[in-house]
Amino acid sequence: MPDLTHIDADGRARMVDVSDKASSAREAVAAGRLRMQAQTLQTALSGGGKKGDVRAVAEIAGVMAAKRTGDLIPMCHPLMLTSVKVSVEPLDDGSGLQATARVKTSGQTGVEMEALTAVSVALLTLYDMLKAVDRGMTIEGVGLVSKSGGASGDWVRP
Question: Which reaction does it catalyse (predicted)?
Fold first, then answer.
């Protein structure tokens, strides 16, 4: 069974000590979907809903969330992010929206959690802004798409 890096020998939670790790360029991409009714998707894509351009607000919310990940996830290091890009686009099958986040830093630890947090908050923001039209929306498939940099190297979802 692999060791959990955030648990010490006594079974207590700890922040991983990265002080001896070399700084390197790191990047992570995460994505997730919000499934909704066709009418709800049209409202989201029109940009003219009562709450304004819901996609633009969700993208901004995702960027803000990535920057606050260290405050939200107890064992995450606060990181100096060098780039955060969040996009919200319609799914090819017309069943909803996909949020994608690409986060970069140059540092001693990766940005996977920042990318996942950005996507999660972008999707939650979309839900919040569209719930008056469709309370049955579902958030699904939030996950890491790829990561690069660091001692563990590159990884891409198969």
Answer: (8S)-3',8-cyclo-7,8-dihydroguanosine 5'-triphosphate = cyclic pyranopterin phosphate + diphosphate
Domains of the chain by residue range:
24-149
Q: Number of helices and strands (H, E) in the chain?
A: 4, 5
Question: pLDDT tens for residues 87-123?
Answer: 999 999 999 999 999 999 999 999 999 999 999 999 9
Classify each residue of 2-27 as buried b or exposed e, where b means 16 or more C-beta atoms within 10 Å of its C-beta: eeeeeeeeeeeeeeeeeeeeeeeebb
Paired tokens of 137: 């929306």
The pTM of this model reads 0.91
CATH class of 24-149: alpha beta
Annotation marks residue 128 as catalytic:
yes
The active-site residue out of 53, 71, 128, 134 is: 128
Tens of pLDDT, residue by residue over 24-44, are 999 999 999 999 999 999 999
Annotated binding site: 75-77, 113-114
